[in-house]
Predict the structure.
Amino acid sequence: MDAVDGMDRIDWTVHFVHLVHVVHRWEACQFACRFSSIETLLNPVTDQKPRLGIVTPLANEEATVDQLLDRVLRQLGPNDLVFCILDNASRDHTRERVTSRSADDRRVRLVWAPENRSVVDAYFRGYREAFEAGCQWILEMDGGLSHSPELIPRFIAAMESGVDFAAGSRFAPGGSYSGRWSRYLLSKGGTVVTNLLLGTRMHDMTSGFECFSRNAMEHVLRNGVESRGHFFQTEIRYSLRDWAWQEVPINYSCPSKTVGQSQIAESFRILWKLYRARG
């Protein structure tokens, strides 16, 4: 009887130790689950897309600005933004129209910049506004509907592939140009000469429809450009030549402004300077 009682006591001791071990593991599991829940609250996992910021300088676009914003906003998500840059070059009611639209839709932001002295100042002010707003992708486009807002998804797709710079191209396969032949020859000829002198490889070195990653935009803002005219687009593309880039076919129509002789002269001066700097 004593031996049997001893065996019973040994068995109960083993069971008790096992029970304590199970309880300990259960408590540890409960703690881990609670900790995991706290971590989830503090660091939520989200599949939200990067915030896109559209930069579009406007000048005397009263007749078309509502159409522009309607078409752009249809391409944007709830957290995306469109920055409308206006300055003293605009003398109609464009500013009032944008003010009204921004009151109706928080994604529309009016940037009043009377200090601007050129179109380059307007674009760079927009770049900075989008960068400071935390946009991960920054897309610039013409405010006069020369660039089709319906092509914005093409740029988003390019950025989603992992590039830092999506460059709109009128002359790449799938792209098109509709406008004055003199402007076409200037843009096409400028691209050929630029590629020849600077060793770049794009089909279009003068387009202003393009999208930047946050890192690429930081590079552009840090380095700046010399041109005060539209050649600044070529400077930017040249400065990003060694980054990961992809051309996006675009359809370009009805350029709203002509290019003056002074801008052409400036373009050749800066192009020659960049060529000599290559060594």
